[in-house]
Amino acid sequence: MEPVALVTGSARRIGATIVRTLHAAGMRVIIHYRGSQQEAEALALELNQSRPGSARLLQADLDNPDAVRKLATQALEAFGQLDLLVNNASSFYPTPIESASDDDWTRLIHSNLRAPYILSQSLATALRRQQGSIINIVDVYAEKPLFQHTLYCMAKAGLAMMTKSLARELGPEVRVNGVSPGPILWPESGQMNQDAITDATALKRCGSPEDIANAVKWLARDAGFVTGQILAVDGGRSLTLQGS
To answer: Would you identify the family this protein belongs to, as annotated (predicted)?
Structure first.
């Protein structure tokens, strides 16, 4: 049977590219979305026209722990197995210390850290059964903070440690790794210092969503002796992190 991947936040942007890449590599895919229903349905239609019955849709609000647990249950019911969990969904926006609220904590910590943990916890048995893997989408700012983004950076730093810790706890059956993107797609809300960030990369350019998706595919399919690692796909951005 074709392996099955659940990719959170995968109706659009980098998540959709990850789904397309894994699907093209022969995997069945579960497309999770929160509010992007039209984009999710269009993506599933595209993939199912290419290979009938190979893509399913699941909706869930990752800020709600009960909804996350329900998502895990539904993901297992979709195809009867799970081989890969990609924790891609993420909230990102500034939270200056003077104005950060409890709602900001909920949105940033839950989507970036708590939901990936609950999904990993809920799906660990199924992933062990398949000798599967977990891949977390981290961030270069998990190591060096982005100005006025403390809650986001805290959450991604926690996700990085979760990656390493679960690699020990879930091995040898399940491999757990991370991909840490640099400048790939700018936030839809905009980012003022785009030129400075690009200039600070060793390659002096932005990457593409395909760069992240191909790293995910490699870790999932071809990196059988790799676990507990976070692969920086950032054009050398993490070498300096200037222009932050």
So the answer is: Belongs to the short-chain dehydrogenases/reductases (SDR) family.
What distance in Å separates the CA atoms of residue 142 and residue 156, rounded to the nearest whole number? 5
Cα 132 to Cα 23, 86, 141, 157: the distances in Å are 16, 11, 27, 24
Sheet holding 84-87, edge to edge: 55-59, 28-33, 4-7, 84-87, 133-137, 175-181, 230-233
Q: List, by residue number, the catalytic residues.
A: 152
Query: Which tokens is 8 given?
Result: 């959170």
65-70 — which CB contacts under 8 Å span 24+ positions? 65/110, 65/114, 65/115, 65/118, 68/114, 68/115, 68/118, 68/119, 68/122, 69/118, 69/122
Phi/psi for 93 (5° steps) reads: -170, 160
Q: Is the peptide bond before 96 cis (omega within 30 degrees of 0)?
A: no
pLDDT digits (tens, 9 = 90+) for 192-205: 566 666 666 655 66
In the chain, what are the domains? Answer: 4-239 (3.40.50.720)
Give the phi and the psi of residue 55 in degrees, each rounded to 5. Answer: -135, 140
pLDDT tens across 30-70, in order?
A: 999 999 999 999 999 999 999 999 999 999 999 999 999 99
Look-up of token digits 């959709």: 16
Q: Give the pLDDT confidence of 92-107 residue by residue, as tens digits.
A: 999 999 999 999 999 9
Give dist(CA 201, CA 238) in Å, integer: 8
Kindly give the interhelix angle for 65-79 and 115-129, rounded to the nearest 10 degrees. Answer: 30
